[in-house]
Amino acid sequence: MLQPADISRVSESILARLDRVNSARERALAETRQLTRLSANAIRAVHRGDFALADDLLSEARRIKELLTSHLADYPAIYWSGYVQDAHKEFAEACLTRAIIGGDPLPGPEALQVDDAGYLNALGEAAGELRRHVLDAIRHGQLERAEKMLEVMDEIYGVLVQVDYPDAVTNALRRTTDMVRGVLERTRGDLTLAVEHQKLSEALARAGRALPESH
Predict the structure, then answer these.
(1) Which of 2, 74, 77, 68 is nearest to 31 (CA)?
(2) CA angle 133, 96, 93 (to 5 degrees)
(3) What is the pTM of this model?
(4) Cα separation of 88 and 107, whole Å?
(5) pLDDT digits (tens, 9 = 90+) for 31-53
């Protein structure tokens, strides 16, 4: 016959497990916030040209990410939750942005320890950061540099547009791909205008030098 003590024993065991899950979730929330903040600060450092600071921030971010992975080893449901995977994507985006702008070899998903879908989405987000870099280069008159970064953006879009799997597999990569297409088109337009302006300025300068001096 069922005894009240049996119900209490079962419920106590369930509550103990739920308490551990909740503790793991709270810890994961704190660590993902740190990871996201460090990644964002690293990207800002890259745009300022402070690669040493960016590397320090990314090193700390990687340490936090590894701790997070270790803490969630027994909690796969939390590990694969949206906020944890989003933090991984932010970290990957920062690493990819640092590599592209810094001219370093591109790390793969294995090196960053992120899943393939997260990596591709991070690559798309990095293309958005490249637009900012292109605009900065245009403002500084570095059109050759801007054209090189535009080529990288175009290459990223070429990769993403080939991925034709359901959103459940790619974590809604189509939205990221659409974003990259829009960013690429706007950036190409901005760079085209800058190049045409430079050509016009050079033509006017040549015309001015060709005019006979007035006496």
Answers:
(1) 68
(2) 90
(3) 0.88
(4) 14
(5) 999 999 999 999 999 999 999 99
